[in-house]
Amino acid sequence: MRDPDVMYATLVVIVLALAQTLAGQAGTTYYVSTSGNDTNPGTIRAPWLTIQHAANTVKPGATV
Hints:
Order of helices and strands: HH
Helix content: 40-55%
Number of helices: 2
Number of strands: 0
Largest sheet: none
């Protein structure tokens, strides 16, 4: 027989881990510019150069 407290604690840990993963880039905005560089961090002051780099880098929930 399984201990319900252990199962509940396990479920809480899984939900918290998933929430951090799913929210990792939610609301994050990255920038691309013809004067950028793909080694930049993708900020407004230091944008990326290519859309392809952005597509390869960002996770779901981010805006480019």
